[in-house]
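Chapter summary example.
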Amino acid sequence: MTALFALATSLLWGLADFGGGLLTRRTPALTVVVASQSIAVVVLGAIVVATGGFAEAGPQLWYAAAAGVVGPVAMLSFYKALALGPMGVVSPLGSLGVAVPVGVGLVLGERPGLLQFAGIGVAVAGIVLAGGPELRGAPVRRQAILLTLTAAFGFGAVMALIAEASTTITGLFLALFVQRVTNVAVGGAALVVSVRRGGRALPEDGGMRVIWASLPALAFVGLADVAANGTYSIAAQTGPVTVAAVLANLYPVVTVLAALAVLKERLRVVQAAGAGLALVGTVLLATG
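The structure predicted for these 288 residues follows.
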């Protein structure tokens, strides 16, 4: 069950990242974050009310609130790093956040078997290579590296925090709701500051009309991200965090394959090799 939910997480995160990447080509990244998460807040709020999730309120929700603060900071750092580029370096480095939940699991006493240790190493190598790291070409700006590492740590911290935010399904819905409300509050405040400094909140071409037309895609991105956090939380609670975290972080492979299928992007040799290694690592983790 751990492997199943963790792989579902990687699929959902990969598709959400792909959709978010497409949306930010026309719409400011902050607007994409706030709009998609606002839709998620409405849906989750209805679910929490229907399931009586507010009865699960307790101190553990501070973990969800912390995840809600860290998430937007990590995402915006990642988007800014992508803008500084090169993307072939930034993208795979961003997946190194897996070290945070894996480290937490090891500190808490988890000790994967020999095959699982091998699977972790192989899968992480595959994740990095699947992003298509640029080994030659223009030098990478130091700011891009620092922003990417900040984003990676943030992504990993969100995984570790959300895994601690609930112990029941109804409690999980409430934790995800709190996380998303915090996401919107933090992202909204950042958007206001950006606009006051001369930034844009709406696309240059089309304005609000583009936002309305993009609502289905925004809803998909927001809800897929929520679902991914939920499936990861379940995976981390039903099995070793070290295994769940690595399998969940296969999402760059999904993003690359989505770009290949939808945008007809060509898969580089290093990316194909990375996808293959990630698959081998998955098998080792699932059978170890």
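To summarize the output: Residues 272 and 285 are 20 Å apart (CA to CA).
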